[in-house]
Design goal:
mainly beta, Immunoglobulin-like, ten-stranded mixed β-sheet, five-stranded antiparallel β-sheet, 4 helices, globular
Length: about 375
């Protein structure tokens, strides 16, 4: 190769090596007064319960939860004008009764805020979601990966989206077998050692088979559980929900995923304005964030028990607790009169049945309800 032709290659190599070390991340000046736009999140389930969340946009520097939009009037409406109301369960979250709506009709969401502003989503034709074939999982170098397999023999789905809810068993760091009630130490009536945690999906999981000959999703990587995850220590379960989407709805979620998950690096795409299907009926120029689709939802649940995983697997407990302390009898009323410190078990004098005190630990380390619920889920196996 001649030297002149080599110069561009050498220059390109030098730039590739030098640029990562000399480019500083762009940190724009924080906008002090962020626009207060309405955000509509949800999906019209024509064969079940519909849940819609209304909130407001916030400054990018604000890491807290978005402000809810309470006391709104929300309803599903079909193209014939029939309305199905939603009621507010918690501030900003609106839920319908279990519905069985015709897939042959088009539907939209209509709402009126407490301030009197009206909004509506576009009329959409429901998409029927095919069943989830299976949720295979595998132990990999980075942990346990859960996949999704699905297909549509009619080749009519093509655009898929998934959400999921995880549930896992966990134990408190120490077992409290006693409780101090009305000035008396007694056996604990309620088990606060074994609990279950729950978490919903936070990332956007979508996949398209539009460029494939067959409408088949094969081993889409949905969840990665780190090898030492506390979720795997005893038993883990995940319920996956599958949605079929239109091409327009898929494009919205693809854009949202790009804006929220692929921004920050030198070669990441520049965030773009989201174009949803919800508009203001009060002011046509008012931006509204959200896309409300319609259709059915299919679900599948799996369990992963610790005895199905390698014996060499080491898991986090989720706790960083000091060793239990012994509380002498004279200090029992003072120490255990609040729920900050809990008694664990009785401490006896050496070679004697004489009680000298009680072992103790913080409630954070001895009461698993601080991090979950001790009510066994109905579906738990």
């Amino acid at each position: 190769m001649s030297l002149p032709r080599l110069y561009p290659l050498l220059l390109g190599l030098w730039l590739a090596l030098a640029l990562p070390g000399c480019v500083d991340p762009f940190e724009p000046e924080v906008i002090r007064s962020a626009p207060n736009y309405l955000v509509v999140s949800g999906f019209i389930n024509i064969n079940g319960v519909t849940s819609i969340r209304l909130s407001r946009t916030q400054n990018v520097a604000n890491s807290g939860a978005p402000a809810a939009e309470p006391r709104a009037t929300v309803a599903i409406q079909d193209e014939a004008g029939t309305s199905y109301p939603l009621s507010e369960q918690v501030p900003g979250t609106y839920t319908s009764a279990a519905l069985s709506l015709s897939p042959a009709r088009r539907y939209q969401l209509r709402l009126r805020t407490a301030g009197g502003r009206e909004y509506a989503s576009a009329l959409v034709t429901p998409k029927v979601a095919p069943p989830i074939d299976e949720l295979p999982w595998a132990v990999e170098d980075r942990g346990v990966r859960v996949y999704v397999n699905a297909h549509d023999a009619t080749n009519s789905t093509r655009y898929y989206r998934w959400t999921y809810t995880e549930t896992w068993e966990f134990h408190s760091a120490y077992r409290s077998g006693l409780e101090y009630v009305n000035g008396r130490m007694q056996p604990r009536a309620e088990d606060i050692y074994q609990c279950w945690g729950t978490a919903g999906s936070t990332s956007i999981a979508i996949n398209s088979t539009a460029r494939l000959n067959q409408d088949v999703v094969a081993r889409y990587p949905l969840i990665l559980l780190p090898a030492n995850s506390v979720k795997l220590r005893f038993k883990y379960s995940v319920q996956v929900r599958q949605y079929a989407q239109t091409a327009e709805e898929y494009a919205y979620w693809e854009q949202l995923k790009s804006n929220t998950e692929s921004v920050g690096g030198l070669f990441d795409p520049v965030p773009s304005q989201l174009t949803g299907n919800v508009q203001s009926l009060t002011d046509a120029t008012e931006p509204v964030v959200g896309y409300v689709g319609a259709g059915t939802v299919t679900e599948k649940r799996i369990f992963i028990a610790s005895n199905e995983l390698p014996l060499t697997q080491q898991y986090e407990t989720g706790y960083n607790c000091a060793p239990p302390d012994t509380v002498p009898l004279a200090r029992v009323p003072t120490v255990f009169s609040t729920s900050v410190v809990l008694p664990l078990y009785t401490v006896y004098a050496p070679m004697s049945n004489t009680i000298v005190g009680y072992s103790s630990a913080s409630a954070e380390c001895a009461d698993c309800r601080r991090r979950g619920t001790n009510r066994r889920p109905d579906f738990w196996q």
